[in-house]
Design brief:
The protein is mainly alpha-helical and 68 residues long. 31% of the residues lie in helices and 0% in strands.
């Protein structure tokens, strides 16, 4: 819910989704809500150098050890 009211937008999408800052370590990447709405089928949610997507980190680590 917060991701539709507060934050910044990297992309102009048809809804009010926003990115809400550096909370990725707490909420698993869902802070990048606007990025998700712009590229809904992408597993990677971060687009800027300062955006941290812990979910993408988990996917990459699982890929390295052969689990993804």
């Amino acid at each position: 819910m917060v991701g539709h009211y507060y934050g910044y937008r990297n992309f102009q999408v048809e809804d009010a989704s926003t990115n809400i800052g550096a909370l990725g370590h707490l909420i698993g990447g869902e802070e990048l809500h606007n990025n998700h709405h712009a590229y809904a089928s992408s597993a990677r949610l971060s687009n800027k150098w300062y955006e941290f997507d812990i979910g993408w980190l988990y996917i990459r680590l699982m890929e390295i050890v052969g689990l993804a």
